[in-house]
Amino acid sequence: MVRVGNTGVVFTIGELAKRTGLPVKTIRFYSDEGLLPPTDRTHSGYRLYDIKAMARLELVKTLRELGLGLADVERALTREASVPEIASQHVDALDTQIRRLRLRRAVLRAVAKRGSELEEVKLMNKLASMSDDDRKRLLDEFWDEMIAGLEVDSEFYARMRSAKPELPDDPSPEQLEAWIEFAELVRDPEFRALIRGMSERHSTSVKDGTFKGDAAVQQNATQQENWFAWSTRAQSSLDAGRLPDSAEGRALADEICAASAGPDRDPSNPQFRRDLADNVEAGGDERAERYWQLLAIINGWPPIPTQMPAARWIVAAIRASA
Protein backbone atom coordinates (compact mmCIF):
# COMPACT_ATOMS: atom_id res chain seq x y z
CA MET A 1 0.00 0.00 0.00
CA VAL A 2 1.36 3.43 -0.98
CA ARG A 3 1.55 5.91 1.88
CA VAL A 4 2.10 9.63 1.93
CA GLY A 5 4.52 10.88 4.53
CA ASN A 6 6.17 14.15 5.36
CA THR A 7 8.44 13.77 2.31
CA GLY A 8 5.87 12.50 -0.20
CA VAL A 9 5.15 8.88 -1.18
CA VAL A 10 6.78 6.42 1.23
CA PHE A 11 6.89 2.66 1.70
CA THR A 12 7.23 0.29 4.61
CA ILE A 13 9.93 -2.37 4.66
CA GLY A 14 7.34 -4.94 3.64
CA GLU A 15 6.32 -2.85 0.64
CA LEU A 16 9.97 -2.38 -0.35
CA ALA A 17 10.46 -6.14 -0.15
CA LYS A 18 7.57 -6.75 -2.56
CA ARG A 19 8.84 -4.15 -5.05
CA THR A 20 12.53 -5.15 -5.00
CA GLY A 21 12.30 -8.89 -4.37
CA LEU A 22 14.59 -8.63 -1.37
CA PRO A 23 13.67 -10.31 1.92
CA VAL A 24 12.44 -8.04 4.70
CA LYS A 25 15.26 -9.35 6.88
CA THR A 26 17.88 -8.25 4.33
CA ILE A 27 16.40 -4.76 3.93
CA ARG A 28 16.26 -4.34 7.70
CA PHE A 29 19.90 -5.44 7.90
CA TYR A 30 20.97 -2.89 5.28
CA SER A 31 19.05 -0.23 7.15
CA ASP A 32 20.63 -1.17 10.48
CA GLU A 33 24.10 -1.03 8.84
CA GLY A 34 23.46 2.52 7.62
CA LEU A 35 23.29 1.65 3.93
CA LEU A 36 19.59 2.49 3.74
CA PRO A 37 18.65 5.18 6.26
CA PRO A 38 14.85 5.48 6.72
CA THR A 39 13.26 8.53 5.19
CA ASP A 40 10.64 8.83 7.90
CA ARG A 41 8.93 6.86 10.64
CA THR A 42 5.32 6.21 11.58
CA HIS A 43 3.90 7.31 14.93
CA SER A 44 4.54 3.76 16.08
CA GLY A 45 8.20 3.96 15.09
CA TYR A 46 8.07 1.83 11.94
CA ARG A 47 10.57 2.83 9.26
CA LEU A 48 9.39 4.38 6.02
CA TYR A 49 11.34 4.85 2.76
CA ASP A 50 10.75 7.15 -0.18
CA ILE A 51 11.42 6.75 -3.92
CA LYS A 52 15.06 7.83 -3.53
CA ALA A 53 15.57 5.21 -0.85
CA MET A 54 14.06 2.57 -3.14
CA ALA A 55 16.51 3.57 -5.91
CA ARG A 56 19.35 3.43 -3.37
CA LEU A 57 18.22 -0.05 -2.32
CA GLU A 58 18.20 -1.21 -5.95
CA LEU A 59 21.79 0.04 -6.28
CA VAL A 60 22.80 -1.77 -3.09
CA LYS A 61 21.17 -4.93 -4.41
CA THR A 62 23.04 -4.67 -7.72
CA LEU A 63 26.41 -4.02 -6.10
CA ARG A 64 25.92 -6.92 -3.70
CA GLU A 65 24.97 -9.25 -6.56
CA LEU A 66 28.25 -8.28 -8.23
CA GLY A 67 30.09 -9.45 -5.14
CA LEU A 68 30.92 -6.18 -3.42
CA GLY A 69 31.22 -6.25 0.33
CA LEU A 70 29.26 -3.95 2.58
CA ALA A 71 32.27 -1.67 3.11
CA ASP A 72 32.72 -1.17 -0.63
CA VAL A 73 29.00 -0.61 -1.12
CA GLU A 74 29.13 2.11 1.51
CA ARG A 75 32.19 3.69 -0.15
CA ALA A 76 30.31 3.82 -3.43
CA LEU A 77 27.16 5.25 -1.89
CA THR A 78 29.05 7.96 0.01
CA ARG A 79 31.17 8.81 -3.07
CA GLU A 80 34.30 7.97 -1.11
CA ALA A 81 35.29 5.95 -4.16
CA SER A 82 33.73 5.89 -7.62
CA VAL A 83 31.88 2.85 -8.86
CA PRO A 84 34.44 2.30 -11.68
CA GLU A 85 37.30 2.37 -9.16
CA ILE A 86 35.58 -0.14 -6.93
CA ALA A 87 34.65 -2.28 -9.93
CA SER A 88 38.28 -2.33 -11.09
CA GLN A 89 39.43 -3.44 -7.64
CA HIS A 90 36.88 -6.23 -7.63
CA VAL A 91 37.89 -7.36 -11.10
CA ASP A 92 41.44 -7.81 -9.79
CA ALA A 93 40.15 -9.67 -6.75
CA LEU A 94 37.93 -11.88 -8.88
CA ASP A 95 40.82 -12.64 -11.23
CA THR A 96 42.89 -13.76 -8.27
CA GLN A 97 40.02 -15.87 -6.96
CA ILE A 98 39.47 -17.43 -10.39
CA ARG A 99 43.16 -18.35 -10.64
CA ARG A 100 42.96 -20.00 -7.22
CA LEU A 101 39.84 -21.91 -8.21
CA ARG A 102 41.50 -23.11 -11.38
CA LEU A 103 44.49 -24.26 -9.39
CA ARG A 104 42.19 -26.18 -7.08
CA ARG A 105 40.33 -27.67 -10.02
CA ALA A 106 43.60 -28.78 -11.62
CA VAL A 107 44.69 -30.44 -8.39
CA LEU A 108 41.32 -32.13 -7.88
CA ARG A 109 41.22 -33.35 -11.48
CA ALA A 110 44.71 -34.80 -11.06
CA VAL A 111 43.68 -36.39 -7.76
CA ALA A 112 40.59 -37.95 -9.34
CA LYS A 113 42.59 -39.18 -12.35
CA ARG A 114 45.33 -40.76 -10.24
CA GLY A 115 43.37 -41.90 -7.20
CA SER A 116 45.88 -40.02 -5.05
CA GLU A 117 46.36 -40.53 -1.33
CA LEU A 118 46.34 -37.70 1.21
CA GLU A 119 50.08 -36.98 1.19
CA GLU A 120 50.19 -36.78 -2.60
CA VAL A 121 47.18 -34.45 -2.57
CA LYS A 122 49.01 -32.09 -0.22
CA LEU A 123 52.11 -32.19 -2.41
CA MET A 124 50.16 -31.51 -5.62
CA ASN A 125 48.39 -28.57 -4.01
CA LYS A 126 51.75 -27.14 -2.94
CA LEU A 127 53.19 -27.57 -6.42
CA ALA A 128 50.17 -25.99 -8.11
CA SER A 129 50.39 -22.94 -5.83
CA MET A 130 54.04 -22.17 -6.61
CA SER A 131 54.95 -18.71 -7.88
CA ASP A 132 56.84 -18.14 -11.15
CA ASP A 133 60.05 -17.58 -9.18
CA ASP A 134 59.50 -20.80 -7.23
CA ARG A 135 58.97 -22.75 -10.46
CA LYS A 136 62.17 -21.38 -12.00
CA ARG A 137 64.10 -22.01 -8.79
CA LEU A 138 62.93 -25.63 -8.73
CA LEU A 139 64.24 -26.17 -12.26
CA ASP A 140 67.54 -24.36 -11.58
CA GLU A 141 68.13 -26.56 -8.55
CA PHE A 142 67.35 -29.62 -10.65
CA TRP A 143 69.96 -28.75 -13.31
CA ASP A 144 72.50 -27.71 -10.67
CA GLU A 145 72.28 -31.20 -9.22
CA MET A 146 72.38 -32.85 -12.66
CA ILE A 147 75.81 -31.39 -13.50
CA ALA A 148 77.36 -30.88 -10.06
CA GLY A 149 81.04 -31.85 -10.15
CA LEU A 150 80.99 -32.73 -13.86
CA GLU A 151 82.95 -31.28 -16.76
CA VAL A 152 80.25 -30.39 -19.28
CA ASP A 153 79.80 -28.27 -22.36
CA SER A 154 78.53 -25.01 -20.85
CA GLU A 155 76.74 -23.82 -23.99
CA PHE A 156 74.84 -27.09 -24.35
CA TYR A 157 73.64 -27.05 -20.74
CA ALA A 158 72.84 -23.35 -20.92
CA ARG A 159 70.41 -24.20 -23.71
CA MET A 160 68.96 -27.06 -21.69
CA ARG A 161 68.45 -24.80 -18.66
CA SER A 162 67.05 -21.87 -20.63
CA ALA A 163 63.74 -23.61 -21.29
CA LYS A 164 61.79 -22.72 -18.14
CA PRO A 165 58.13 -23.38 -17.28
CA GLU A 166 56.25 -20.12 -17.91
CA LEU A 167 52.60 -20.44 -16.92
CA PRO A 168 50.48 -17.60 -18.34
CA ASP A 169 48.44 -15.39 -16.02
CA ASP A 170 45.32 -17.28 -17.05
CA PRO A 171 46.52 -20.87 -17.59
CA SER A 172 44.27 -23.55 -18.97
CA PRO A 173 43.45 -26.64 -16.87
CA GLU A 174 45.74 -28.64 -19.19
CA GLN A 175 48.63 -26.26 -18.53
CA LEU A 176 48.14 -26.48 -14.77
CA GLU A 177 47.95 -30.27 -14.87
CA ALA A 178 51.07 -30.35 -17.05
CA TRP A 179 52.90 -28.17 -14.51
CA ILE A 180 51.97 -30.48 -11.64
CA GLU A 181 53.20 -33.49 -13.62
CA PHE A 182 56.36 -31.63 -14.66
CA ALA A 183 57.20 -30.61 -11.09
CA GLU A 184 56.66 -34.17 -9.88
CA LEU A 185 58.86 -35.46 -12.71
CA VAL A 186 61.88 -33.29 -11.89
CA ARG A 187 61.51 -34.24 -8.22
CA ASP A 188 61.30 -37.97 -8.97
CA PRO A 189 64.51 -39.79 -7.83
CA GLU A 190 64.43 -42.23 -10.76
CA PHE A 191 64.15 -39.43 -13.30
CA ARG A 192 66.92 -37.49 -11.60
CA ALA A 193 69.11 -40.60 -11.74
CA LEU A 194 68.31 -40.96 -15.44
CA ILE A 195 69.28 -37.37 -16.30
CA ARG A 196 72.33 -37.51 -14.02
CA GLY A 197 73.47 -40.60 -15.91
CA MET A 198 73.07 -38.76 -19.21
CA SER A 199 75.09 -35.87 -17.82
CA GLU A 200 77.84 -38.20 -16.68
CA ARG A 201 78.07 -39.78 -20.14
CA HIS A 202 78.09 -36.29 -21.64
CA SER A 203 80.92 -35.31 -19.28
CA THR A 204 82.92 -38.37 -20.31
CA SER A 205 82.52 -37.48 -23.99
CA VAL A 206 83.67 -33.92 -23.27
CA LYS A 207 86.77 -35.18 -21.46
CA ASP A 208 87.78 -37.68 -24.15
CA GLY A 209 87.03 -35.27 -26.99
CA THR A 210 84.19 -37.22 -28.55
CA PHE A 211 81.43 -34.76 -27.64
CA LYS A 212 81.31 -33.43 -31.21
CA GLY A 213 80.97 -36.96 -32.53
CA ASP A 214 78.92 -39.99 -31.62
CA ALA A 215 77.76 -38.63 -28.26
CA ALA A 216 76.13 -35.65 -29.97
CA VAL A 217 73.60 -37.44 -32.17
CA GLN A 218 70.72 -35.31 -30.93
CA GLN A 219 72.57 -32.40 -29.37
CA ASN A 220 73.44 -29.78 -31.99
CA ALA A 221 71.02 -28.05 -34.32
CA THR A 222 72.09 -29.92 -37.45
CA GLN A 223 71.85 -33.29 -35.75
CA GLN A 224 68.44 -32.40 -34.38
CA GLU A 225 67.22 -31.75 -37.90
CA ASN A 226 68.82 -35.01 -39.01
CA TRP A 227 67.23 -36.84 -36.11
CA PHE A 228 63.79 -35.57 -37.06
CA ALA A 229 64.28 -36.81 -40.63
CA TRP A 230 65.63 -40.16 -39.42
CA SER A 231 62.71 -40.57 -37.02
CA THR A 232 60.24 -39.79 -39.79
CA ARG A 233 61.77 -42.46 -42.02
CA ALA A 234 61.86 -44.94 -39.14
CA GLN A 235 58.21 -44.27 -38.32
CA SER A 236 57.26 -44.82 -41.99
CA SER A 237 59.07 -48.15 -41.99
CA LEU A 238 57.43 -49.03 -38.69
CA ASP A 239 53.99 -48.17 -40.06
CA ALA A 240 54.69 -50.25 -43.14
CA GLY A 241 55.58 -53.26 -41.00
CA ARG A 242 59.26 -53.34 -41.98
CA LEU A 243 61.66 -54.92 -39.49
CA PRO A 244 64.76 -53.09 -38.19
CA ASP A 245 67.02 -55.64 -39.95
CA SER A 246 65.38 -54.96 -43.31
CA ALA A 247 67.19 -53.29 -46.21
CA GLU A 248 65.57 -49.98 -45.21
CA GLY A 249 66.74 -50.45 -41.64
CA ARG A 250 70.30 -51.19 -42.76
CA ALA A 251 70.37 -48.14 -45.04
CA LEU A 252 69.10 -45.85 -42.27
CA ALA A 253 71.58 -47.32 -39.76
CA ASP A 254 74.46 -46.74 -42.17
CA GLU A 255 73.43 -43.12 -42.69
CA ILE A 256 73.10 -42.43 -38.96
CA CYS A 257 76.44 -44.05 -38.18
CA ALA A 258 78.21 -42.14 -40.95
CA ALA A 259 76.77 -38.82 -39.73
CA SER A 260 77.58 -39.57 -36.09
CA ALA A 261 81.17 -40.79 -36.41
CA GLY A 262 83.91 -38.32 -35.72
CA PRO A 263 86.96 -38.03 -37.98
CA ASP A 264 88.82 -40.63 -35.90
CA ARG A 265 85.98 -43.16 -35.75
CA ASP A 266 85.08 -45.86 -38.25
CA PRO A 267 81.29 -45.82 -38.79
CA SER A 268 81.37 -49.44 -39.97
CA ASN A 269 83.06 -50.67 -36.80
CA PRO A 270 80.68 -53.03 -34.92
CA GLN A 271 81.74 -51.76 -31.50
CA PHE A 272 81.18 -48.16 -32.59
CA ARG A 273 77.69 -49.11 -33.74
CA ARG A 274 76.89 -50.91 -30.51
CA ASP A 275 78.12 -47.91 -28.51
CA LEU A 276 76.08 -45.56 -30.69
CA ALA A 277 72.97 -47.71 -30.21
CA ASP A 278 73.54 -47.58 -26.44
CA ASN A 279 73.87 -43.78 -26.56
CA VAL A 280 70.72 -43.33 -28.61
CA GLU A 281 68.82 -45.72 -26.36
CA ALA A 282 70.05 -43.95 -23.21
CA GLY A 283 68.92 -40.61 -24.61
CA GLY A 284 65.58 -41.97 -25.76
CA ASP A 285 63.89 -42.60 -22.43
CA GLU A 286 60.16 -41.81 -22.48
CA ARG A 287 60.50 -39.72 -19.35
CA ALA A 288 63.14 -37.49 -20.97
CA GLU A 289 60.79 -36.95 -23.90
CA ARG A 290 57.90 -36.31 -21.52
CA TYR A 291 59.96 -33.53 -19.90
CA TRP A 292 59.90 -31.58 -23.17
CA GLN A 293 56.31 -32.48 -24.00
CA LEU A 294 55.15 -31.08 -20.65
CA LEU A 295 57.21 -27.91 -21.12
CA ALA A 296 55.53 -27.45 -24.50
CA ILE A 297 52.07 -27.70 -22.93
CA ILE A 298 52.96 -25.34 -20.06
CA ASN A 299 54.56 -22.72 -22.31
CA GLY A 300 52.03 -22.96 -25.13
CA TRP A 301 54.56 -24.30 -27.66
CA PRO A 302 53.50 -26.50 -30.59
CA PRO A 303 52.79 -30.05 -29.40
CA ILE A 304 55.73 -32.46 -29.42
CA PRO A 305 54.61 -35.84 -30.77
CA THR A 306 56.29 -38.92 -29.38
CA GLN A 307 59.28 -40.30 -31.24
CA MET A 308 59.85 -43.23 -28.90
CA PRO A 309 58.58 -46.02 -31.20
CA ALA A 310 60.72 -44.67 -34.04
CA ALA A 311 63.72 -44.29 -31.71
CA ARG A 312 63.42 -47.89 -30.55
CA TRP A 313 63.23 -49.01 -34.19
CA ILE A 314 66.39 -47.03 -34.99
CA VAL A 315 68.25 -48.52 -32.02
CA ALA A 316 67.28 -52.02 -33.16
CA ALA A 317 68.34 -51.18 -36.74
CA ILE A 318 71.78 -49.96 -35.63
CA ARG A 319 72.31 -53.03 -33.47
CA ALA A 320 71.22 -55.33 -36.28
CA SER A 321 73.76 -53.66 -38.56
CA ALA A 322 76.68 -54.10 -36.14
TrEMBL record:
PROSITE patterns: HTH_MERR_2. InterPro entries: DNA-bd_dom_put_sf (IPR009061), MerR-type_HTH_dom (IPR000551), MerR_fam (IPR047057). Residues 10-79 form the HTH merR-type domain. Keywords: DNA-binding. It comes from the Bacteria. One of its GO terms (molecular function) is DNA binding. This is DNA-binding transcriptional regulator, MerR family. It comes from Amycolatopsis xylanica.
